[in-house]
Amino acid sequence: MTDLAPRQKLWVERDGRVVMSDYRLRLLELVRETGSLAQAAATMKLSYRRAWGKVKEIEENLGYALVESAVGGAGGGKTELTPAGCELVEAYRRFKERMDEALERVYTEEMLRGPGPR
Length: 118
Hints:
The protein has helices at residues 22-34, 37-43, 48-62, 83-112, and strands spanning 11-14, 17-21, 67-70, 78-81. It is α+β, with helices and mostly antiparallel strands. It has a single domain, classed as Winged helix-like DNA-binding domain superfamily/Winged helix DNA-binding domain (Arc Repressor Mutant, subunit A, Orthogonal Bundle). The strands form two sheets. A two-stranded antiparallel sheet has the order 1-2. Strands 3-4 form a two-stranded antiparallel sheet. The longest helix is centred in the C-terminal third of the chain and has 30 residues, at 83-112. 17% of the residues are buried.
């Protein structure tokens, strides 16, 4: 069993609606890194419309803004995470890391120490 590896899908819901997941985390991280929702969408091979809809869906489900956009100008528009958006990204990242650590620990305790060939 030492050649097996545990995996998990993780998300957070509010009233049965997804507000954060690994997919959403990646989208918001890319917005923060690039300063552009269009570039984040392109990196994830999403349409701009789908990416914008996903951000709006998260905001609606949470009840607060995650991004601020500025249009036009010489260099074009930009999209940045709000302070609340940054806090959400960091909190979910920490949550995910701790869940990954817990998964490894429990997997080792339950699956690698149990019966069966090693």
